[in-house]
Amino acid sequence: MAVDGPAGSGKSSVSKAAAAALGYAYLDSGACYRALAWSLLQRGIDLEDPAAAIEAQKTFRLDIGTEPGDYFVRVGDVDVTDAIREPRVTNAVRHISKVPEVRAGLTALFRRIIRATPNPGIVVEGRDITTVVASDAPVRILLTASEEARMARRSEELTDQSAAVVGEQLRSRDQADSRVVDFMNAADGVLTLDSTELDFGQTVHAVVEIVHTQTARISHGR
Ligand SMILES: Nc1ncnc2c1ncn2[C@@H]1O[C@H](COP(=O)(O)OP(=O)(O)O)[C@@H](O)[C@H]1O
Ligand SMILES: Nc1ccn([C@@H]2O[C@H](COP(=O)(O)OP(=O)(O)O)[C@@H](O)[C@H]2O)c(=O)n1
């Protein structure tokens, strides 16, 4: 199943918990974009040079855990699970995620991972999963929450940064990202789940219920 949404809507945490509840695998596509940005920063490559990013992507070796209980991100032999969450990486990703060739390369990688998954299903989350990467997924959800709720959730996580700074960074990143793909409006056939008034457990429950309802409908041919 495919889940998209803006930063702080709960995509990663909710998708991982829903995958665990369903016995599905879980793919954090944003972590792959982050890992590529980390790798370019590490190699001293100018992220604002698309040709350099495309060239460097050819030798980018990524390993990502798709079991909800065993999540990790590695680039070559280096574990970057925590490093890719650092603000310097978060702020750098937008330069590469707007490059169509980079997106095509990562989309191909996501599709290989989806095909190779041994679980009965996989929850894939990001910005363009419902529309591009897995537009044929049996269940597609746009997870939203008010800007206020999303900022409050993020600043609770990033306790070393002020709420104002977190809020401004989140807003500017969403703006940059939404110029590349539209994840603010649900495409045809995509269900919108607004988590503003739901707590974490209620949101996970709602996602699991949607999967049960949609898959029952499909197996009954409706
Ligand atoms: N419905 C919810 N209610 C309250 N907190 C939530 C909810 N959904 C997610 N969170 C919390 O908000 C934070 C950000 O969620 P995250 O999954 O990182 O969002 P995203 O991947 O969309 O950026 C996490 O700490 C998560 O536990
Ligand atoms: N499918 C995706 C996923 C992420 N991204 C990019 O990767 C960045 C990080 O994604 P993320 O999902 O880890 O970000 P959060 O919403 O969790 O903060 C986004 O800001 C986008 O620029 C993308 O372009 N397409």
Number of strands: 8
Order of helices and strands: EHEHHEEEHHEHEHHEH
User: What form results from the Cα inertia axes?
Assistant: globular
Mean pLDDT: 93
Rg over alpha carbons: 17 Å
Please mark out the parts with pLDDT under 50 across 5 or more consecutive residues, or reply none.
Answer: none
Question: What tags apply to this protein structure?
Answer:
222 residues, alpha/beta, five-stranded parallel β-sheet, three-stranded antiparallel β-sheet, binds adenosine-5'-diphosphate
What does this structure look like?
With 222 residues, the chain is an alpha/beta fold. The chain has 9 helices and 8 strands. The chain has helices at 11-22, 29-42, 50-57, 87-97, 100-116, 129-133, 147-157, 163-178, 200-219; strands at 2-4, 25-28, 62-64, 73-75, 78-79, 122-126, 140-144, 191-194. The strands form 2 sheets. It has a 5-stranded parallel β-sheet with strand order 2-6-1-7-8, with helices on both faces. A 3-stranded antiparallel β-sheet has the order 3-4-5, with helices on one face. Helix 2 crosses helix 4. Cytidine-5'-diphosphate binds at residues 7, 12, 29-31, 33-34, 93-94, 97, 126-129, 173, 177. Keywords: ATP-binding, Cytoplasm, Kinase, Nucleotide-binding, Transferase. It comes from Agreia bicolorata. Residues 2-212 form the Cytidylate kinase domain. It is found in: Cytoplasm. It holds the Pfam family Cytidylate_kin.
